[in-house]
Amino acid sequence: MDMLSMAGTSQRDRHSMISRDTPFGVFLSIQTGVGFLGNCLLFTLYMYTFFTLPHKRKPADGILAHLTLANSLTVLFRGVPNIIRSFGMRPETSDTECKLVLYIQRVTRGISLCTTSLQSSFQAVTIAVSGCKWAWLKNNIFTLIQPSIFFCWIINMVMYSEVILNIVAIRNASDVTSWYYRPFCKLSMYNHQVSMVFLSSMIIQDSLFLFLMACSSIYMVTVLTKHHRTAQSIRSSARYSGSSPERKATQVILTLVCCFVFFYWTNSFLTAYTQFGNKLNWQLENINNFISSCYPTICPFILMINEKRISRVHFFNSRTRIFFH
After folding, report:
1. Helix ranges (DSSP H) in 53-94
2. What is the CATH number of the domain that holds 191?
3. Nearest 5°: phi and psi at 89?
4. What's the domain range around 212?
5. How many domains would you assign to the chain?
6. What's the pTM value of the predicted model, to 2 decimals?
7. Distance CA 211, CA 204 (A)
8. 142 pLDDT above the threshold of 60
């Protein structure tokens, strides 16, 4: 009798949790859809410009194309599993599906970090004062973009190969351990040495690129402050006091960096708290899932502020001519 009562209580708690998660599932569905469509729109623009409008191509398009691609995959592969869980569905998941989804999540997260850091560094070099000691880097920055992005992909794909080796699907819904990768996967076994090497490499990579972001941002703020003071001192030049394209681009990149750092540290804190807490907190887990997708969701819309090509009519007219010819 007691066992039946406990089973009934457990089932009621489960249904109660599902009903509480349903509104969050709707909200997360909207976030995932908006973020995925926004990133796909920008990625299509960059690819269209690259192949059909080379004269309108910008030096930073290569970096931003990789950033929007990584963000769209992050939003999709992180959002969909959490949406499924929020609506109380429990599909049969194979080990291969678990490995693939988590591997793409981790790699695209690393690519998002790398490309955001590269973009801030690129913009800092672009607005650097001519004749400074970094002039050689300013002259060769365009040739370093593609090798840097390629290196980012390689290092993240190799580093997160640990996911392919150790992640398996959860066979039993009650199988919740301290090394549990919610909502459908877990570690097959825990090896302290391997985990420490993996964690150390991830911390080193994140710290390096966050440091590059900080240095680039500080330098860009310094340059913008000097330009603003100069513009105020030259009152007779109305054109100079206006906002240049370089200044607008710099402000957009600074906004991206601030958003990334804020959501990165918030997500890291909540992840550590939920992993090392005494018990699972599903509400906190839901909040963390939402925050982890905030940056890749709002990133394309911040970039659109400085993207005039997306609002030009001839872009859509030329696409129409391609489809109907």
Report:
1. 61-86
2. 1.20.1070.10
3. -85, 150
4. 2-324
5. 1
6. 0.81
7. 10
8. yes
